[in-house]
């Protein structure tokens, strides 16, 4: 009888549940559940009239539970298999997405007294609320030459876990005191399934200043504020689980609610982008995976540890046991295209409707008739700040070269090129630091949706790009970890590498650079680099000033 695992990918806008065959990685069933409350940026769902500050991005934890409660039964039905064929579950989640819970694991926003308090809600990875707190942390850490900074590209991002916790500490002490634990959302889901708190070494390592040799920097927390020191012994408690391990088994209550076998193994959670690396089939050094969706993460595997300025982090054993994983990223890629697609004139929306295609596809079609450089435009892709290599959430986007003849497709293409130039800066940074890149994979929702984008990336990077045939690689990665959590004794696998080999997704296409484009993009990239350095380094205060007027 064939065996399957469940992989659940919690993205920015939706949760996706897959039922994956563990022998060949084929997807037998699926269910995508958009979050009913989406990304909460303006007003809390309780709608008491309070507007959220700019830069807030919150979520409703009930939306995640719906993915579990509705998504799992639907996906099993879609797969048309017996639930007894399921041998394990794996979870991946955007990160750092932080949930503050009470002693029973209930999110604080579910408490009546906190329902109108933004700090009691889930803080999504792209919540940029803790800017001031992050600056304070960074100043202190760099002035004390904190040794753990080197693991984070010598910087701290507002998008990470500790800045989010410190934001609650500074802005709302009542919520802080009431929180029994602060959890990564992926670990919270695992705790809902198993009844146990097991914190993933992947998100702890990349987002919480934790290191497997030195633990949390308790003394630094104390320097930050004497009362913040206790966060480690109180609100960050919990067993630490490693990628490839079992976090626990499904509680009896969950098995009967979901119609799943009793004692079903549940894997330690993994960050979504990192999970995609497994789904793509990357498990060797010198491979780089671009996980392209709302944002892009550029993840590399290597046997060696190098401390590289400007990256998001380097953590051992966080994707493939014994290898170092490196992460760098761009905070707005699909999000930038999505924002632009909403700004186009009515006439374009009408044209797309008449052709029965999306505005994205219409813009892509029109932009594909342009040659590199033809529009005379160049853009900076910092519409959600710059994650790598400048690590500055205050930076914003721009477009240079506009004339009265500029068309929406010119701007759209300039934005696509800007994200490719941003990726080139990140990749060059890895290479200059001594990480050799032999292969580049691309996956996530974007590569399959946008052919022109992938050709532009191949041309700008002047490298071949191997695109995965699956737009669900994070969920497949989670299913891979579910099969390792099950272990050989239950028909699963003993090692992550073995499971990756069996369950990795097929390749859709390899994009090769077009030489004439490569030459033109080399020139455009030089201009991009100058804009990048001028507005991102020399005159970086300008963008901050504009926001604070
Ligand atoms: N054809 C397209 N071209 C460019 N961007 C697109 C296209 N279709 C969707 N997008 C953008 O891609 C993002 C969705 O990516 P996806 O990987 O599916 O989600 P997530 O990042 O939440 O995992 C959205 O930000 C959307 O604006
Ligand atoms: O920071 C990240 C991983 O470390 C991701 O960018 C974040 O989780 C959002 O992912 P997505 O664009 O797939 O929604």
From TrEMBL:
Enzyme Commission code(s) on record: 2.7.1.16
InterPro entries named among the record's database cross-references: ATPase_NBD, Carb_kinase_FGGY, FGGY_C, FGGY_N, Ribulokinase
Record-annotated Carbohydrate kinase FGGY N-terminal domain positions: 4-279
A GO CC term assigned to this protein in UniProt: cytoplasm
Pathway listed: Carbohydrate degradation; L-arabinose degradation via L-ribulose; D-xylulose 5-phosphate from L-arabinose (bacterial route): step 2/3
Reaction catalysis annotation: L-ribulose + ATP = L-ribulose 5-phosphate + ADP + H(+); D-ribulose + ATP = D-ribulose 5-phosphate + ADP + H(+)
Gene Ontology MF, one: ATP binding
Enzyme class at the top of the EC tree: transferase
Keyword terms: Arabinose catabolism, ATP-binding, Carbohydrate metabolism, Kinase, Nucleotide-binding, Transferase
Biological process, per Gene Ontology: L-arabinose catabolic process to D-xylulose 5-phosphate
Domain annotation Carbohydrate kinase FGGY C-terminal: ranges: 289-486
Family in the record: Belongs to the ribulokinase family.
Name this polypeptide is given: Ribulokinase
Gene name as annotated: araB
């Amino acid at each position: 009888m064939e065996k399957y695992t469940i992989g659940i990918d919690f993205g920015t806008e939706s949760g996706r549940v897959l039922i994956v065959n563990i022998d060949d990685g084929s997807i037998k069933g699926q269910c995508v559940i958009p979050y009913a409350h989406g990304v909460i940026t303006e007003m809390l769902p309780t709608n008491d009239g309070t507007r959220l500050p700019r830069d807030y991005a919150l979520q409703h934890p009930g939306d995640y539970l719906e993915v579990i409660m509705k998504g799992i039964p639907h996906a099993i039905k879609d797969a048309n298999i017996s639930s007894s064929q399921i041998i394990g579950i794996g979870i991946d989640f955007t990160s750092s997405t932080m949930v503050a819970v009470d002693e029973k694991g209930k999110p604080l926003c579910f408490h009546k007294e906190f329902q109108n308090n933004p700090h009691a809600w889930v803080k999504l990875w792209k919540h940029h609320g803790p800017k001031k707190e992050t600056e304070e942390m960074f100043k202190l850490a760099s002035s004390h030459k904190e040794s753990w900074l080197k693991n984070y590209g010598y910087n701290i991002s507002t998008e990470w876990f500790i800045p989010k916790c410190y934001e609650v500490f500074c802005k709302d002490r009542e919520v802080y005191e009431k929180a029994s634990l602060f959890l990564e959302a992926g670990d919270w889901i695992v705790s809902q399934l198993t009844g146990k708190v097991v914190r993933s070494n992947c998100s702890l390592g990349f987002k919480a200043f934790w290191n497997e040799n030195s633990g949390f920097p308790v003394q630094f927390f104390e320097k930050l504020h004497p009362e913040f020191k206790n966060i480690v012994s109180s609100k960050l408690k919990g067993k630490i689980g490693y990628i490839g391990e079992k976090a626990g088994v499904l509680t009896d209550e969950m098995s009967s609610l979901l119609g799943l076998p009793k004692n079903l193994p549940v894997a330690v959670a993994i960050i979504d982008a990192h999970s995609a690396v497994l789904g793509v089939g990357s498990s060797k050094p010198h491979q780089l995976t671009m996980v392209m969706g709302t944002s892009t993460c550029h993840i590399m595997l290597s046997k060696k540890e190098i401390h590289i300025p400007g990256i998001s982090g380097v953590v051992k054993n966080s994707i493939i046991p014994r290898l170092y994983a490196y992460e760098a990223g761009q905070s707005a890629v699909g999000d930038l295209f999505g924002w632009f697609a909403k700004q186009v004139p009515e006439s374009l929306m009408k044209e797309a409707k008449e052709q029965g295609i999306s505005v994205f596809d219409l813009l892509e079609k029109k932009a594909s008739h342009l040659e590199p450089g033809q529009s005379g435009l160049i853009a900076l892709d910092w519409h959600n700040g710059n994650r790598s290599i400048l690590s500055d959430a205050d930076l914003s986007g721009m477009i240079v070269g506009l004339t009265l003849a500029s068309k929406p497709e010119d701007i759209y293409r300039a934005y696509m090129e800007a994200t490719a130039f941003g990726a080139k800066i990140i990749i060059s940074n890895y290479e200059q630091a001594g990480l050799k890149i032999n292969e580049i994979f691309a996956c996530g929702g974007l590569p399959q949706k946008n052919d022109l984008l992938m050709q532009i990336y191949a041309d700008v990077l002047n490298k071949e790009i191997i695109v995965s045939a699956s737009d669900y690689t994070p969920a497949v990665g989670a299913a891979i970890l579910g099969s390792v959590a099950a272990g050989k004794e239950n028909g699963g696998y003993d090692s992550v590498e073995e499971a990756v080999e069996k369950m990795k997704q097929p390749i859709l296409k390899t994009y090769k650079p077009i030489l004439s484009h490569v030459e033109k993009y080399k020139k455009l990239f030089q201009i991009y680099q100058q804009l990048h350095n001028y507005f991102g380094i020399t005159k970086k205060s300008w963008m901050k000033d504009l926001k604070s007027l």
